[in-house]
Amino acid sequence: xxxxxxxxxxxxxxxNARFNGDGILEVRASAVGNCRRALWxxxxxxxxxxxxxxxxxxxxxxxxxxxxxxxxxxxxxxWDITPTDRDNPRMVSLRLGPTLAVSGHVDAxxxxxxxxxxxxxxxxxxxxxxxxxKWRTLGAERSxxxxxxxxxxxxxxAFDQARDVVIATLDTGNRAWDYEVIPAHRVERAxxxxxxxxxxLAAHHLVNGxxxxxxxxxxxxxxxxxxxxxxxxxxxxxxxxxxxxQSEDETAEDAEPVTDEAARAALxxxxxxxxxLKAIEEDKQWALGMLRTWLGQRGEQKARLEGxxxxxxxxxxxxxxxxxxxxxxxxxxxPETRAGIVTExxxxxxxxx
Length: 353
Ligand code: SF4
Prior knowledge:
353 residues; globular; binds iron/sulfur cluster; Lambda Exonuclease, Chain A; 12 strands; 11 helices; alpha+beta
């Protein structure tokens, strides 16, 4: 493994994969978790069949634009942050064998407040509220392993060894941010996982050369979001782009057809019911406040009172909540151990907003 660094100007707009002037397959560090077939299609110059929509590009640009906001928030929270000069970013490049290199630009290096001793790579991510919650609860190695792989490459590229990595994430919905520290020994393991994944692509290159028609195996299937957002979807899986994803508990097929007019009537019913519930809830809260004051003025925790149909007990109830500090838990336990402790349940419901 050799390490080189230079200062290219196209670092923010480079393709995810390309063959450089020496015939080396160069993969962007931010794309190490991408489908290897998609990387190959891009590097070998296949035409994009499913370009990003304008909305998706706007989301991407908004995420990039918010990264300095997170770094400034970290500085205000006491971190010693050295952000990359975005006008002249330093590229870090790692050679993995004779046919493949991984390169990218580091968001920042940072030293934690008070107890931080040496700079770590800080990888900044922006996520919607659901993805943010998932990251905080499960930890980056389980929720977004590719972000840890990316930061691991930067760490080895910048320091030539494993070090703690900091994943700093902004919740774009609630404008909250937080960070997670991945300890060095787990960064080393993430680096090995990513190298092994890319090693297969390097071997493919070694055997086939830059042959655009010798395609690596697909890493995902048409149901995966990676395929749904893939710029080569129509070339790789023709005929699947127009297929609407079916939810696992799809029941629409069995139900009677519902007209738009019937749906509008149902929505109006729903709105009316919501209004009534709101008024009832306000009355309930007013009554509870009054009873709380009455109980407090009596100096009692519990009392009996005549109701409409029976005598009821009015009393204060203590409710204890137990909070888990996911950040500390994630730092202490490896992802496999956490998987046995923090489990995931997915349910779905209809929301009208
Ligand atoms: S469509 Fe799916 S399997 Fe095919 S290249 Fe894209 S991500 Fe890979």
